[in-house]
Automatic annotation (TrEMBL):
Pfam families noted in UniProt: HAD
InterPro entries documented for this protein: HAD-like_hydrolase_phosphatase (IPR050849), HAD-like_sf (IPR036412), HAD_hydro_PyrdxlP_Pase-like (IPR006384), HAD_sf (IPR023214)
Keyword Iron: no
Native source organism of the sequence: Xylaria bambusicola
Keywords associated with the record: Hydrolase
Name of this protein: Phosphoserine phosphatase
NCBIfam families: DKMTPPase-SF (TIGR01489), HAD-SF-IB (TIGR01488)
Keyword Nucleus assigned: no
GO molecular function, one term: phosphatase activity
Length: 254
């Protein structure tokens, strides 16, 4: 059991459910990478076109994301400070996270973003103690050759894996899904970095009006739409409490 706990840490407390979630634009109201690109990089239009190319033209997310971040040349410490000042939390997430902790539903953050930004924002937005219990699997940041990350044009993304996504979130979920006797698994996301995870859990929450909804409708993937974490909280509590099934909860855009 110890080996299993090490490879699948969300099982450590023997939960009845696991909540996997994207970070940027899902837990937060603003996507930190989009914010950097829109305000410090090549801007909104080129970023949106990159997302459309991923969603409709099959362009690898990794390549479009790299171009976004390459356009941001401000030192990393300055980028981080600006994000702490500008990125806000989904107002209902903190209450949901507290409920998950009380009801033994581990939250596993699966992000296409960068670990130092996610950890700093989570600690700032929900507090050090709450952030410390959340497992985070994401990309990282590294210095460019001959530079420090806090130099002008000094940092680069370090991808989690070699996949076209940079971080293939399905690879984190599938070992749990393969277990014979396993917890109910949820996933919440909003955009093109979530496409790899869309088909992997029992119930998918897709944020209203975002690219993930478009993808799910196009691919006929069952999902339920959410506006904020109060919507998610109610459904997860009802499923965990046995009031409804995941099939009943997958209402699409209705």
């Amino acid at each position: 059991m110890a080996a299993l706990d090490a490879s699948l840490p969300a099982l450590r407390t023997k939960p009845k459910a696991i909540f996997f979630t994207d970070f940027d634009g899902t837990i937060t109201l603003q996507d930190s990478n989009d914010w950097l690109t829109d305000n410090l990089g090549f801007g909104v239009e080129l970023r949106r076109q990159g997302n459309k190319d991923v969603l409709h033209n099959g362009r690898p997310f990794r390549r479009a994301f790299q171009e976004m971040l390459d356009s941001v040349t401000k030192p990393f410490d300055q980028c981080l400070q600006l994000l702490l000042e500008n990125v806000k939390l989904d107002p209902a997430f903190k209450e949901f996270a507290a409920w998950c902790r009380e009801n033994n539903v581990p939250i596993v953050v699966l992000s296409g973003g960068m670990q130092p930004i996610i950890r700093a924002l989570l600690a700032h937005l929900v507090g050090e103690e709450e952030a410390a219990v959340m497992q985070i699997v994401s990309n990282d940041v590294k210095p460019r050759p001959g530079k420090s990350i806090n130099d002008e044009n000094g940092w680069d993304i370090q991808y989690h894996d070699e996949s076209p996504f940079g971080h293939d979130k399905s690879l984190q979920i599938r070992p749990y899904a393969a277990l014979q006797d396993r917890p109910v698994m949820f996933y919440a996301g909003d955009g093109v970095s979530d496409l790899s995870a869309a088909k992997e859990t029992d119930l998918l929450f897709a944020k209203a009006g975002r690219d993930l909804v478009t993808y799910c409708e196009k691919e006929n993937i069952p999902f339920t739409v959410f506006n904020d974490f109060s919507d998610i909280h109610k459904v997860v509590a009802d499923v965990v409490g046995g009031k409804i099934s995941v099939q009943q909860a997958a209402t699409g855009t209705k």
